[in-house]
């Protein structure tokens, strides 16, 4: 196994408006974490899977992971996260196995991200010559710059994209970037770029949207319902 994927699931998910941490909220009777891990364990690339869970829910996350992994459970590690996403990723990076030379970082909240997206990112990192890799989608909506409630400018969207996870990196460079970059970044590509590296895009997947609001949860419910037939 040469590739690891760190699945961060330690957020509280307050914007979802549920009592439970987001990864344990169910979509069609199955937790967000379990949905995400079905995609991860469906990848063709053999993976070390590192799940980063809220400290109080590590055992529950391990049970979910073992259930999905089945015979691949030997490649599963579950650790407790931190109080920011970046700290949670760092906790996952601390348990990379020997022999891993590339690392993907993935949000559990992107519960319906397909396995094919993971394989696409793995391939791009392998051929990317040291660059990081992010899945990207063209912007659909027109974008404005505002000051309070006033529009102060138009933004040309033709060279803008929105980015998703999993994001992939060569192991040594990612660990060095995590060791050297202090401030909090919203994604790993930003942290990697801050350390002076280039970032490539691969085509993203609409299904890899992040479940953040009750509306996203409702959308995920309908998508899973439709695919269950
Ligand atoms: O809050 P947001 O949806 O942006 O979080 C993105 C991902 O990062 C989620 O899967 C969440 O569980 C994870 N996260 C984490 N530790 C934190 C904050 C967020 O693992 N402290």
Walkthrough of the structure:
- GO terms for molecular function: 2-C-methyl-D-erythritol 2,4-cyclodiphosphate synthase activity; 2-C-methyl-D-erythritol 4-phosphate cytidylyltransferase activity; metal ion binding.
- It comes from Protaetiibacter larvae.
- It catalyses: 4-CDP-2-C-methyl-D-erythritol 2-phosphate = 2-C-methyl-D-erythritol 2,4-cyclic diphosphate + CMP; 2-C-methyl-D-erythritol 4-phosphate + CTP + H(+) = 4-CDP-2-C-methyl-D-erythritol + diphosphate.
- Its cofactor is a divalent metal cation.
- In the N-terminal section; belongs to the IspD/TarI cytidylyltransferase family. IspD subfamily. Belongs to the IspD/TarI cytidylyltransferase family. IspD subfamily.
- Helix content is 33%, strand content 25%.
- The chain is α/β, with parallel strands linked by helices and 229 residues long.
- It has a single domain, classed as Alpha-Beta Complex (Spore Coat Polysaccharide Biosynthesis Protein SpsA, Chain A).
- The strands form four sheets. It has a five-stranded mixed β-sheet with strand order 5-4-1-6-11, sandwiched between helices. Strands 10-7-12 form a three-stranded mixed β-sheet. Strands 2-3 form a two-stranded antiparallel ribbon.
- β2 and β3 form a beta hairpin.
- The structure holds cytidine-5'-monophosphate (C5P).
